[in-house]
Design goal:
Largest sheet: none
Number of strands: 0
Helix content: over 70%
Shape: globular
Order of helices and strands: HHHHHHHHHHHHHH
Strand content: under 5%
Distance between the termini: 8 Å
Mean pLDDT: 91
Number of helices: 14
């Protein structure tokens, strides 16, 4: 499944995360503080939506260990090599390699609810630890959701309600970010919500129901306003479910010329590379500006410089590093035997 509108949304939400991490001056918040929460939630939900949509379109094979390992390998072929390069650059920037950095190699950092671990190395790489877990459990989740959708959704709804009413209030404040925002098991709820959202899409598609743009924009703006007044431990992910759901359903049920324009779609194609290198780009450029005596550069010019460099680097990295290595690994895995017939783009 390939929707140009969804690719464009990937790029737009990657920019939201970028602006979340960009501050005009040190010790100031980002330009768009809500961008990190909504951006990460969007990518987790979209991953579940796309994978399950393609699972439904193809005859799936049984979730055997061999098939699952090949499936995970193909998914990691796109994200892991660049992750390792970014981890090396992050260690080079600080001229040190620590034990928390090593946990990044095995993508287990998100399971350790301490900031020095989950934000170690290339700090934003923690989400790859979550994706690895999603990929590992996806074949089993997809099998259950396809076989008994009502039962699956009912159990999932109960789990979410218990989490909201009992789980979140009991989490210690010192571990709130590490568990609510970072932990793969907790964030898998976003992923499963994306899978369930696919069933809503199929229903809307069968009855040719389209989501209205005005409604979608209103829900998103309303969510942003709530985010700034909502208790922090409740605004990290679940708050964004309705807004992200509306956006994905709007993008997939309603033809939109703006979301289909080629520059946006192309940027969406490289959004993963952009996401993974944008903090490193910012830090390396800031270090360079400091060395040449331009640390106090005009904030607007600094923003343009970092954004332009990151976008250009994203296209080059995607074209000449990510794609060649991904294709090489997938060709090797294809020789190992059959894998679940799930589109992996």
């Amino acid at each position: 499944m390939y929707f140009n509108s969804l690719q464009s949304l990937r790029g737009l939400f990657a920019l939201m995360i970028f602006f979340h991490h960009f501050n005009f001056r040190q010790n100031e918040g980002g330009m768009f503080e809500a961008g990190g929460d909504c951006g990460v939630t969007f990518f987790f939900i979209l991953s579940g939506f796309v994978l399950f949509q393609n699972y439904l379109k193809n005859e799936s094979q049984s979730p055997t260990i061999k098939n699952n390992l090949i499936f995970i390998g193909k998914r990691l072929s796109k994200i892991y090599p660049l992750h390792i390069v970014c981890l090396a650059l992050a260690c080079l920037l600080k001229l040190a390699v620590t034990i928390p950095d090593i946990t990044n190699i095995f993508l287990v950092q998100a399971w350790i609810p301490f900031r020095t671990y989950y934000f170690s190395g290339n700090a934003i790489g923690w989400c790859l630890s979550d994706f690895l877990f999603f990929y590992a459990v996806f074949p089993f989740l997809a099998y259950g959701l396809r076989r008994s959708p009502l039962k699956f959704v009912g159990i999932f709804t109960v789990i979410v309600l218990l989490y909201i009413l009992i789980g979140i209030p009991l989490i210690p404040s010192s571990l709130a970010d590490g568990i609510i925002y970072i932990n793969p098991l907790v964030r898998s709820m976003d992923f499963v919500y994306g899978m369930a959202l696919c069933l809503i899409y199929k229903y809307l598609q069968s009855y040719k129901i389209k989501i209205n743009l005005v409604d979608t924009v209103c829900v998103f703006i309303f969510t942003i306003l709530i985010w700034y007044s909502c208790p922090s431990r409740y605004n990290l992910s679940l708050l964004w479910w309705p807004a992200v759901g509306f956006l994905i359903l709007y993008a997939t049920t309603t033809a939109n010329k703006i979301l289909a324009i080629k520059p946006l779609v192309l940027f969406g194609d490289v959004s993963f590379s952009f996401y993974l290198i944008h903090v490193l780009s910012r830090d390396y450029i800031d270090k360079f500006l400091y060395k040449i005596g331009l640390a106090e550069m005009n904030p607007g010019l600094r923003l343009f410089l970092i954004l332009a460099f990151t976008i250009l680097a994203s296209f080059l990295v995607h074209r000449y590093f990510v794609l060649p290595i991904e294709n090489l690994i997938r060709r090797h895995l294809n020789k190992r035997g059959p894998s679940p017939r799930v589109a992996l783009n």
